[in-house]
Amino acid sequence: MTAVSGQQPDTTADDLRTLFGQSIAVFAALSGPSHVVEAANPAFFTAIGGGDRARTGIPLAELMPELADQGFLTLLDQVFHTGEAYTGRDARIVLGSGPHAREAFFDFTYEPYRDAAGTVTGIRVIGVETTQVKHAQQLTAEHRALLEQIARQAPLTEVLDGMARSIETLAPQEVFVSVLLADPDGRHLRHGAAPSLPAFYNEAIDGIATGEGVGSCGTAAHRREPVIVTDIAADPFWTEFRDLATRAGLAACWSTPILARDGALLGTFAMYHRTPRVPQDTDLALAHIFAGTAAMAIERHHIEQAKQAALDELARTVHSEKQLRAAAEQRATAAAELNARMRAAAAALAAAPHPEHCQLGGRTGCTEPAELKVADSWGDSAWGCSAHIEEAILNVRSVFIASEELGGLAAYVNR
């Protein structure tokens, strides 16, 4: 936008209103060393807060007292006294005060205007608000970094902690971010991330129940919708936690539920403030975007947990199978050794006097040839077929194969 030459008389207020009245650029004409607002377009008044501020005929310092410590009035004095224009780029300014204060960024020019004699009589302020562009650039960069963390399967605590710090950096005003994670049953909330909140506060709310009136987060989780508490000291939801919040220096809390794609509760995302505050559109946009990002990270974490649990179960199954196989192999080896011993003993006892038939067939008897002699620690002994001998050895702890020379108890004592 081309400014009027410094040697020409100032344009009339009506002309300025016509020129800038419908513009998205902010414009104000300030006169005299006290910078009295002589004219301004609607965009200027909207930018500074509107309402009672939409006035002319008063000094800018009186209209916007928050400028006193931000350097803008000093720059106006400099331009007025030197007659040299000043241009700022992406200049940060806090507009308003208290709960309704907001951070904004502007590209602007302070250009002096002069009377016919060339004396500086005032300053034109022309600017374009770049707040949305500035925040969008910052948001895009931070959001991309978080998505990259999620994609490379970074630990959930690392992702949530990084997200909280990003929001604390991006938010227009000082804010403390907390993420609580829902238990599988959805009835309690556990600590997830809160890098800037006091440790005692995080410990106290770890495990709080979800339910109506349980602070901002418990209520948001219960309702499955955002809960905005602008003044903790006066809100009934905070009756049980008011003293805790006071100790932590917290005065406002806006909580948004974190929901899975199927609507299941994953947790809550909260923004805390030291003074009572009403959320701006940028605050709500941050909460919406990052609640969605948190949902993505938490769901990804749950999927990875399920995969790991399945892998662990598979590993346990494979281990059990190996143990069973090893035990079976041991039993097979033991059986082979027993058979070898039985065959050797049968060969050794073949010529010894022994009954014709197996004596281990029980009441029904056994017609198989007697091949081996077994004895026990009490001195009892008997001859039997190979099948009944093997059965006795496997099932009766004290039974062993006896030789004819060392039968009964003698064989046990001298084994």
From TrEMBL:
Domain of life: Bacteria
InterPro entries hit by this protein: GAF, GAF-like_dom_sf, PAS-like_dom_sf, PAS_4
GAF domain boundaries: 142-308
Pfam families according to UniProt: GAF_2, PAS_4
Protein name as catalogued: GAF domain-containing protein
Provenance organism: Actinoplanes subglobosus
